[in-house]
Amino acid sequence: MKITNFEFKAGMGNISLLEERLKELGPDYVGEDNQTDTYFQVPHGRLKLREGNIETALIYYEREDESGARQSDVILYKHKQGSALKKILTKLHGVKAVVKKKRRIYFIDNVKFHFDNVKGIGTFIEVEAIDETGKKSAESLRQQCMKYADFFGITEDEYVPGSYCDMVMQNAE
Fold it and tell me: Beta strand pairing status for 46-51 and 57-63?
């Protein structure tokens, strides 16, 4: 499945306050997911295998490493849990990094909200305005994303430009 989204990630000291604020809008609560994302060595973009109790998928994406709302072009393959796919990808590409996180997931329409506690690097909010239909313009997705950045009062210095993979690798050095 090919998906386009606009997203931002921000490092926040107390994500529970932001989560309570979001609840005032009556979002759909999906649940809490304990996720392990294994990132593989690839020549461009990012390839990760997500293993969770709610979300399990092989995800390839390309996105600029810049602060604020940014476009991601995603190819998503949902699969059943099992170790064969991970073994194949590890053998073919090698593991770049492993990210473990506890994620609380909400939706309002096509906008997905993550409240993440990432092992070894901290707590974050991530907001994704998602288009799985190809009918929304990139600008409308960007506007949706920025609307919630304003709602949460995210400041320029709180945005995270890279991925959790980058932060885990940097933290390991």
Answer: antiparallel
Mean pLDDT, rounded, for 77-83: 84
DSSP, residue by residue, 35-53? EEEEEE--SSSEEEEEE-S
Please write the tens of the pLDDT for every residue from 110-138: 999 999 999 999 999 999 999 988 888 88
* Residues 6 or more apart in contact with residue 81 via CB below 8 angstroms: 51, 56
Domain residue extents for the chain: 2-172
Residue 65 has pLDDT above 90, yes or no: no
Supply the pLDDT for residue 12.
87
DSSP for 64-119, please give it.
---SSSEEEEEEEEE--S-SHHHHHHHHHH-EEEEEEEEEEEEEETTEEEEEEEET
- What architecture is the 2-172 domain classified under in CATH? Beta Barrel (2.40)
Q: What percent of the chain has pLDDT over 70?
A: 99
- Between CA 62 and CA 131 the distance in angstroms is 15
Strand partners, 155: none
Burial class from Cβ neighbours inside 10 Å (0-12, 13-18, 19+) for residue 141 reads: buried
